[in-house]
Design a protein that fits this description.
single chain; about 350 residues; alpha/beta; Rossmann fold; 3 domains; six-stranded mixed β-sheet; five-stranded parallel β-sheet; 12 helices
C-alpha cells in the first residue's frame, strides 16, 4: 500500500500542505482543533500505518489510572496497553497505580491523593458508599473522573469506558444454554466480587437469559473468589467434589486459571462446558486444549486507548465523545491475532 502524501492529507483535512507538515513534525503554531483534524485525516488515509499517532495535548495534562492489584490476567493486559498507549502521547504525564483489589477504603484513600483541574482520573470502580463519596470529593476538587471496566452510578463522573456487562452476561447465558442442549442441567457460577457493578450486571444478565430461554437449567451456587487463582482453584475443586452433576461452569470475573486447573485435575475438563471472560495468554491455551469452550472478550487495547483519549478531552474541556467497546465471543476456531 502506497503511503499517503502530505498533499493527500491536506486535501482530506481542508488545510495547506505546510500546515500538515507542521502538525506531523510537531512544530508550533497550529491550533489544537486544526492539529486534531490533520491527524484524524492522516489516520484515515493510513499515513501512520500500524502505529497510533501521538495525541497532541497540553503539557500540563496529568492522567492518573487506578487499577486493582492481584493475579487478574486481564488487568495485567489492560495495564500493558495503557502504558503502551501512554508512551505515544505528546505532552501528557500518565501514571498507573495499583491498589488492593475489592477494598473500598484503599481506593478511597488513593483518590484522596488527587484533585486538580489539569488532572484526570480513571478507576475500576467499586460500588461502595466510601468510594462514591471519594469520587464526589475528587470531582469537587476539579478533577474529571472516568470509570473503567466496571461502572458506578450516582456520582459526578464524566463517563464510562467498558462493555455493556449485562449484555455480556446474557451472551454467556445464551451460549451455556445452547452448548448444554435440551434437558435438565446444573450450572456452577463464580465471580470476583459483587462489589463490582460489572460482575453484578453480568450475573443478572446470565440469570435472566436462563430464566427466559432455558428454564430447565438451574444454577447450583454462586461463589465469590476475589479474582484470585488460588481461591478460584479451591472453590472450584470443592464445588466439583460436592456436585457430580455439574453440566457447565460460568466464571464472571478472573480466576480462570484456578478453575481450569480444578477441572483438569478432576478429569471433567472435556465434559463440563466452561464459559469465561477475557482473552489472555492463559484462556487462549484453555480454548486450544478444550478446557474452555468460549471466552467473552472485551478488547483491553481499545479500552486503554479510549480511556486516555477521553480523559485528555475532559481535562481540556472538549467534552465526552461516546466510545463503543465491542463484546466478542471467542471459540477455538476464531481466536484473533493480536
Amino acid at each position: 500500500m502506497v503511503r499517503a502524501r502530505l498533499t493527500d492529507i491536506a486535501r482530506e483535512a481542508g488545510v495547506s500542505s505546510a500546515t500538515v507538515d507542521r502538525v506531523l513534525n510537531n512544530r508550533p503554531g497550529v491550533r489544537a482543533k486544526t492539529q486534531a483534524a490533520v491527524r484524524a485525516a492522516a489516520a484515515r488515509l493510513g499515513y501512520f500505518g500500524e502505529t497510533e499517532p501521538a495525541l497532541p495535548v497540553r503539557a500540563e495534562v496529568r492522567i492518573e489510572i487506578v487499577l486493582p492489584a492481584g493475579t487478574n490476567s486481564f488487568i495485567r493486559e489492560l495495564r500493558h496497553h495503557i502504558e503502551t498507549s501512554a508512551a505515544l502521547l505528546s505532552g501528557a504525564t500518565v501514571r498507573v497505580h495499583s491498589i488492593e483489589g475489592f477494598n473500598p477504603d484503599s481506593l478511597a484513600a488513593k483518590l484522596a491523593e488527587f484533585g486538580a483541574p489539569d488532572q484526570g482520573v480513571a478507576i475500576v470502580a467499586i460500588d461502595h458508599p466510601t468510594v462514591r463519596e471519594a469520587v464526589r470529593a475528587l470531582s469537587q476538587r476539579g478533577s474529571p473522573v472516568l470509570t473503567l471496566v466496571s461502572d458506578i452510578h450516582h456520582v459526578p463522573r464524566v463517563g464510562y469506558i467498558g462493555i455493556d456487562n449485562r449484555s455480556a452476561g446474557r451472551l454467556a447465558g445464551y451460549l451455556v444454554g445452547r452448548l448444554l442442549g435440551p434437558g435438565r442441567h446444573h450450572v456452577a457460577m463464580f465471580a470476583g466480587s459483587f462489589s463490582y457493578r460489572g460482575h453484578e450486571e453480568r450475573e443478572m444478565g446470565f440469570r435472566h437469559v436462563l430464566t427466559e430461554e432455558f428454564p430447565e437449567i438451574r444454577i447450583l451456587e454462586s461463589t465469590e473468589v476475589r479474582d484470585e487463582e488460588s481461591r478460584a482453584y479451591a472453590a472450584a475443586k470443592a464445588m466439583l467434589e460436592r456436585h457430580d452433576d455439574i453440566g457447565a461452569i460460568y466464571n464472571i470475573g478472573a480466576g480462570n486459571r484456578g478453575i481450569a486447573r480444578a477441572l483438569e485435575e478432576s478429569g471433567k475438563a472435556e465434559t463440563i462446558v466452561f464459559v469465561g471472560h477475557d482473552l489472555t495468554e492463559y484462556t487462549k491455551a484453555y480454548l486450544l486444549n478444550g478446557t474452555m469452550d468460549v471466552v467473552i472478550d472485551q478488547n483491553p487495547r481499545v479500552q486503554a486507548r479510549e480511556v486516555l483519549a477521553q480523559l485528555i478531552r475532559s481535562v481540556k474541556g472538549e467534552g465526552w465523545r461516546a466510545a463503543s467497546i465491542r463484546v466478542q465471543a471467542v471459540f477455538k476456531e476464531n481466536i484473533p491475532e493480536v
